[in-house]
Amino acid sequence: MLTADDKKLIQQTWDKRVGAPRGAGGGLFITYPQTKTYFPHFDLTRGSDQVRNHGKKVVNALTSAVKNMDNLSQALSELSNLHAYNLRVDPVNFKLLSQCFQVVLAVNLGKDYTPEVHAAFDKFLSAVAAVLAEKYR
Ligand code: ZNH
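That is the input. Now the predicted structure with protoporphyrin IX containing ZN docked in place:
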């Protein structure tokens, strides 16, 4: 469960616009190349239009998740359908992405990446991943 303090930290960090989520996508493809198999139709060259557009969509989705932390299932319900029924992304990949996200966050925040920030994002990203994966069977 996200505490009130967790939520505040996430909101504050998010508002600083650290650009973490987009770096995380690139990190995902480099660190876990198997994740590229979900994007056979993409030009995965760093900074390609497709990669940038996709990054923007994911960031927008996460921004709306940050704004709706008390209501994640509802806020992400369409995305949940998409990932479960259409894309069929193996849920393990959500963990990998969260990992990359934390690394980029740490690099961007430097000393502001406190254990509290780390823990809050861990919970938040797990909650997002749980919603995206809740319709799998
Ligand atoms: Zn995902 C898509 C979000 C994870 C894979 N995604 C997508 C989108 C969004 C998202 C917003 C768009 C939609 C539309 O268009 O409508 N994701 C997301 C999030 C997350 C994710 C938030 C977490 C956190 N994904 C993921 C992973 C993977 C994926 C991990 C694998 C690896 N996605 C995907 C795909 C797609 C998507 C494949 C489709 C693309 C195209 O465009 O085609």
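The mean pLDDT is 91.
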